[in-house]
Structures are given as C-alpha cells and as structure tokens.
Specification:
Length: 318
C-alpha cells in the first residue's frame, strides 16, 4: 500500500500557504520551524513532487503545491467535522465552535445570550469573530468558521439558513426635530428626512433601504439624498446627536441602551414597522446541523425572554 500524507503534514502545508513564511507558519501550528520544514520535506517525498518553491526572500507554492493545498484544506475540514460529529453525538453543543457575528448584531445580542449559554452548555467553547457578512460567509465556506449569526435575507446557495426572530427598525432623532413630536411615524414619512446610514458593506444599510423601499443609489430618482456615512451604529448615533439628520436603528440596539448618554428620542414606524430578520447560516455539508438548530433555539428563547422585560431604553419608545 502506498504511503499517504498525514494530517499534520497537510496542516503544515496549509499554514505555509496562509502565511508564506516558515517562521509564522510554524508558530501558527505550535511547532518549531525545523519541525515544520522537515514535515514539508517528508510530505514532498511521500507525494513525489515539489510543492514549495523556496528562496531567500519569499515562499511560493508550485502549481502542484497550489492544487494539493486546495485538497488539503478539504481533507482537514472533513477531519475536523468527523471529530465534531463524534463529540456532538456524545454531548450536543460541547467542545469548540467558531461563530462569526456581524457588528450590528454581536454587541447588542451576545451580552444577553452568552451568560445563559455558559450555564446551559458549560462544555461549549465558543470562539467569536466579528466582521461584515460577506467576509464571514467567505470564512464559513472555507471552513475557518462553523456558523455565522447574521441578518437575513442574504443569497448564498451553498449555505443553509435558520430564521431566529424579527428585529424591527425604529427612528432615532434629536428631541427638537419635527419628527420627535410624532408618536408613530409611517416609514415613508421618515425617509423623506435627512436619513443617515452605515457605509456600504454593512448589510444593515441594505436592509434599512429595502425595508423603506428606497433606491440604493442616493441622489437618483426614487432614491434619497445621502450626505454622510458612518462606520458603526455608535458613530451613527453620535452623528444624529450632532444634528446631522435622523437614522433607523434596530430594536436590539435600542434595547441595549445605544442612546444612553445622548438626548435622542426614538419613535415607532407604525404597527407594521419594517424589520430585518436575524438568523444563522452554516455549510449545507456540515454534519453539525442538529447542534446548530439547538443553538438557534436557545438564542431564540433567550432573546424572547429578554424582550418580555422592557428595558429603560425600550420604555422610551412611544
């Protein structure tokens, strides 16, 4: 029987492809540089081909090396999923779980969810990564993440999605603004004002525009006059507090006290207020789907319980 490469050797190769530096790759693998170099030489000997082009100034993969790296990533991902499958059979939601979360959800939902999850699943080791949706889904597809907590809808055929709950939009404006004196504002009325939004790349921006039936091209017919963009919800709130306009905020951010320290007021957008949908995404091929649905149910329940107790920020919403 022909000799086969080991998972350790393949991990060394993938790390070198990621870092393109022997020292950094060895550090990422918790190995010495000499150990990593020897492992790669053994891998090349087993496969009978050169995978790495070594020079004094840089590290390059040969064409064969690039092909092997692609297959090595898949093999390593499959090996990790085998281990996860066995762990979940013995104790669901235990061991490591790499969760990606978007910045307009993580700071407002996770502080409420994490303490309960630690109590409910003490052996779960949750590793969190915050980033924008597109980059998180890229990492999910490559196997760097197991699961992503995001806002829907988002089109991606290679993933499965689980809907958790609706997160309505509310209007935030200065107390002296004309809209501040209105108890409930139709969405169409709110968007006639100077609407401030997050910069492109944040899905909250697209969801807010879609919910209010606005064109995504500011300044064009059927669109709105967009003057300023913010990089985070906190910055957005400070821009509104500075009198630059009004904005739409998700209810979960309001419930978390994002308006604290300002004199801004929040107003409902009516009984049928536009909302974004919060959900989970995982690879369609993942063997941990049952676990992920259990986690989704836990998040849904914890969020629902938190909403039953009105916060000080929610009480301001007329």
């Amino acid at each position: 029987m022909a000799a086969l490469p080991t998972l350790r050797q393949l991990r060394y190769l993938v790390a070198l492809d990621d870092h393109r530096h022997f020292g950094h790759a060895a550090e990422a693998c918790a190995a010495t540089q000499s150990t990593l170099s020897a492992g790669l030489q053994e891998l090349e000997a087993v496969l009978g081909g050169n995978l790495v082009e070594r020079t004094k100034r840089r590290v390059l993969m040969t064409p064969l090396g690039n092909e092997v790296v692609v297959r090595a990533r898949q093999l390593l991902r499959d090996a990790e999923e085998i281990g996860a499958l066995v762990r979940s059979a013995g104790e669901p939601l235990s061991g490591p779980l790499r969760l990606g979360v978007i910045p307009t959800v993580g700071p407002y939902l996770l502080p409420k969810v994490m303490p309960h999850l630690r109590t409910m699943h003490p052996h779960l080791r949750l590793y969190l990564r915050e980033d924008q949706t597109a980059r998180l889904l890229d990492r999910l597809g490559s196997g760097d993440l197991d699961l992503v907590l995001l806002a829907l809808p988002y089109r991606a055929d290679e993933f499965e999605f689980e809907t958790l709950f609706e997160d309505p939009f509310v209007l935030a404006c200065p107390p002296g603004h004309p809209l501040a004196g209105t108890a409930s504002i139709p969405g169409a009325r709110a968007i006639e004002e100077d609407l401030l939004l997050l910069e492109e790349g944040h899905c909250l921006r697209e969801h807010a525009l879609a919910a209010c039936h606005l064109s995504m091209a500011p300044g064009k017919a059927g669109g709105w006059q967009e003057r300023l963009l913010a990089t985070s919800l906190t910055t957005l709130v400070q821009m509104v507090a500075g009198g630059l306009g009004v904005t739409l905020l998700p209810q979960m951010a309001l419930d978390s006290g994002i308006l604290a320290g300002t004199d801004l007021v929040s107003r409902s957008l009516g009984k049928e207020a536009p909302a974004r949908t919060i959900g989970l995404a995982w690879r369609a091929s993942s063997p941990r789907k049952t676990e992920f649905r259990l986690l989704g149910e836990a998040i849904r329940r914890i969020h629902g319980q938190a909403c039953e107790v009105p916060s000080e920020a929610s009480a301001q919403l007329v």
